[in-house]
Design a protein that fits this description.
The chain is α+β, with helices and mostly antiparallel strands. It is built from twelve helices and 17 strands. A seven-stranded mixed β-sheet has the order 1-12-7-2-3-4-13, sandwiched between helices. Strands 5-6 form a two-stranded antiparallel sheet. It starts with about 25 loop residues before the first helix and ends with a helix.
C-alpha cells in the first residue's frame, strides 16, 4: 500500500512532478515574454502620453504667443463709445463691416522708409463688407488723397482738432484709428463693426514667410523713395521688395493713386491665395511664421484681438467663393481745386454706399477693377444701378479677386 501511495493528482510521490498545470509546456513558455510585453506596453503608453503632453504644452505656448502678439486699441474704442449717438446704427442682420488700415508710421523699425515726424498716416484703407449670407465680400479702397470732412478728434497729446475738409489720410495722423473710423462713417453712412491696423514690418514678414509673392512688370522699375529696383518680367518679390512694390506710385504706370490701389488689391489677393495653398496652410513649419508675422503687425478693436476671433473671421472668409470676393475703388475723380487730390463721384459713390448699407449685391463692370473713377460701358464702374433690382444682381463679367491688371497680364 505504501508503494502505491500517490499525491492528489495521481502521481507517485517519488517521481518528478512534471505534469502540474503550472508547468504545462504550452503555457509556461510564453510567460516571460508576456511579462516583458506588458512592461513594454506600459512604457510605450507612458511615452506617448508624455509626447502628447509636451505637444499640447508647446501648442498652448505657441497659441498664447500668437494671441499676445495682437495689440488692442482700447483708446479708439473708448472714443468711439463717446460718440455713439452720432454713429450709424449697428446692422443686426449678420453682415459685418471691417475697416482695414495700412499704417505708414516712420517710427521704430519703419524709420528707413522716411523721416519720423512723430506722426503716422493711413497709407492704405479698405472697407471690407461681409454679406449676411456669408457668400460674398466686397472690399472698397478709399484713396489716401480723397478730400473728406474730418470731424473734431482727440489727438495723442489729448488736445482736440477742429472739423476740417482735408485729404482723407490726415484723419489717421490727427486722431488715429477712432478719427479714421468716424470719418469713414460720416462719409459712407456705414457702421464700422471692427477695425484692424497693419504696419509695414508685419506686411514684410508675411511675404517673407511664404517665400515671396510673384508679380509681373511690363517695364523695369527704379524708385529710390520706395527702395525698389526691379527688372521687367515675371519675378518673385521678397518682403522688402513687396513693400516697395505696393507703395511705389510715380515709377509704375501713370503714377496715379488709383492705379497704386489697384496694384495693392492685386498683390493682397495673390498673398492670400498663396497663404491658402497646401504648401503653407498644411505645413506647420511654414504656417507658423506667417501667423507670427501677421499677429505681430496687428492692432485691433477688442472684438478682434484674440487668435480665436481672427480664426473665426478667416474661416468666414475661406467659405466665400473666390469669384464672389470683389475689389474696387470708391468712385473718385480729380478734386476741382487741386488736381493732385481726389473727390467722390456722385451720385455713383452714394449708390455704392447705400447698397453696402442695405447689404445688397454689388457688381463690378468689366475692366473697372479698381478704377471706379472711369466709365465702363456707358456708366461709372462704381455705378451699381445695373444690378437688375434689389437682391437680383446682374452677373459680373469679371471676377476681381485676385486682380488682373495690365502689369500682371503683360507676361501672359
Amino acid at each position: 500500500m505504501d508503494a502505491d501511495v500517490t499525491d492528489s493528482a495521481g502521481t507517485p510521490d517519488d517521481e518528478p512532478q512534471t505534469g502540474g498545470p503550472d508547468e504545462d509546456p504550452s503555457k509556461s513558455a510564453p510567460e516571460p515574454p508576456a511579462g516583458r510585453k506588458r512592461h513594454w506596453v506600459r512604457w510605450t503608453a507612458l511615452g506617448v502620453a508624455f509626447v502628447v503632453l509636451v505637444a499640447a504644452g508647446v501648442g498652448w505656448w505657441l497659441y498664447n504667443k500668437l494671441d499676445h502678439n495682437i495689440r488692442t486699441d482700447n483708446t479708439a474704442t473708448a472714443e468711439l463709445r463717446a460718440y455713439e449717438k452720432e454713429r450709424p446704427p449697428p446692422v443686426a442682420n449678420g453682415a459685418e463691416n471691417i475697416l482695414l488700415i495700412g499704417s505708414d508710421s516712420r517710427a521704430g523699425d519703419n524709420k528707413k522708409y522716411g523721416r519720423d515726424e512723430g506722426s503716422q498716416r493711413s497709407d492704405t484703407t479698405i472697407l471690407l463688407h461681409l454679406s449676411t449670407d456669408k457668400k460674398s465680400a466686397t472690399a472698397v479702397s478709399l484713396p489716401r488723397d480723397l478730400m473728406s470732412h474730418v470731424p473734431s478728434c482727440i489727438k495723442a497729446d489729448k488736445t482736440r482738432t477742429k472739423k476740417q475738409f482735408v485729404q482723407f489720410n490726415w484723419a489717421f495722423e490727427y486722431g488715429g484709428t477712432a478719427c479714421t473710423v468716424r470719418t469713414v462713417e460720416n462719409m459712407t453712412g456705414i457702421r464700422i463693426d471692427h477695425y484692424m491696423v497693419v504696419d509695414f514690418e508685419g506686411f514684410k514678414g508675411m511675404v517673407d514667410a511664404v517665400d515671396g509673392v510673384q508679380v509681373c512688370l511690363k517695364k523695369p522699375v527704379d524708385d529710390k523713395d520706395a527702395h525698389l529696383k526691379l527688372p521687367a518680367g515675371r519675378q518673385t518679390l521678397d518682403g522688402e521688395q513687396a513693400l516697395g512694390y505696393v507703395r511705389v506710385r510715380h515709377s509704375i504706370g501713370n503714377g496715379s493713386d488709383t492705379e497704386r490701389m489697384q496694384r495693392q488689391q492685386e498683390f493682397l489677393g495673390s498673398l492670400v491665395k498663396k497663404v491658402q495653398s497646401d504648401g503653407v496652410l498644411l505645413n506647420p513649419t511654414r504656417l507658423y511664421p506667417v501667423l507670427d508675422a501677421a499677429t505681430k503687425s496687428l492692432t485691433t478693436d477688442p472684438g478682434l484681438d484674440t487668435l480665436k476671433d481672427l480664426y473665426n473671421l478667416t474661416r468666414r472668409l475661406r467659405g466665400i467663393p473666390t469669384h464672389r470676393v470683389q475689389f474696387l475703388t470708391v468712385p473718385r475723380e480729380p478734386y476741382v481745386n487741386n488736381r493732385n487730390r481726389d473727390q467722390l463721384v456722385q451720385p455713383a459713390a452714394d449708390r455704392l454706399f447705400k447698397r453696402l448699407r442695405d447689404d445688397d449685391p454689388v457688381t463690378v463692370t468689366k475692366g473697372g477693377t479698381g478704377t471706379a473713377a472711369g466709365t465702363q460701358g456707358g456708366r461709372s464702374a462704381g455705378d451699381t444701378s445695373g444690378t437688375g433690382g434689389k437682391g437680383k444682381p446682374s452677373p459680373s463679367p469679371q471676377a476681381t479677386f485676385p486682380g488682373t491688371n495690365a502689369a500682371s497680364a503683360a507676361c501672359g
